[in-house]
Amino acid sequence: MPYSLFRSAPLIGLAAAAIAIGAACSRGDAAAKSANGSSAAAPASTATTAGDVSGTASIAPQDSISAKADRGRILGDSTAKVWLVMASDFQCPFCKQWHDSSFAGIVQKYVKPGRVRLAYLNMPLSIHQFAKPSAEAAMCASVQDKFWPMHDSLFATQRIWERLQDPSSFFDTLANHNHVEMGSWRTCMSKHLTLPLIEADYDRGRTTGVNSTPTFFVGSIRLTSADADVAGALDAALAKAK
To answer: What is the pLDDT of residues 4-14, one digit of tens each?
Structure first.
């Protein structure tokens, strides 16, 4: 199976997707946080079924940097029959909420045993000032197969770096902490070498109906919000795959 997220993962397309409602960040949620930075309350998640349009939208740039970064943000056994694709924004408070409450459990129960393959789709929303720089920090680490440690570190420290005037030195510290080769990572960051892939991710997500983060794709199911029953969708997809 090809490693490219865009060529191998079954992303789900909707002909006319509505703006997602739930514990999620959207392009119009500039007031999602109060003055003290806390997340706004939101109702439960929604799930929508749709047809598979894998391969019909924009394809990730195929230069060596993009290819390595693409490969690095996919986790799990290549023979797994079920994909979980999560569209996320490192500065979205609801993405952090899902990460902190559910991510490790999903990896432990489904990904590590080889039952599910997991991929990250960058959806840096314009309402978040540092969404793209944080995505670049993760994807430049992904070039060195360090995406997932950087992913965890960015969410763990989100409430620190999002308040900085310029978080670039903080991202540098996180990369160093995660044993990234710093010379190559800094070159990648300064030259924005993974930005084309991030922007392709965003275009792909918008084409396939992503209007808020986090959004999850499991088989023919699209789920939105931090309250989404991702485990239940995976169980159903695995049962169907048998």
So the answer is: 554 444 443 33
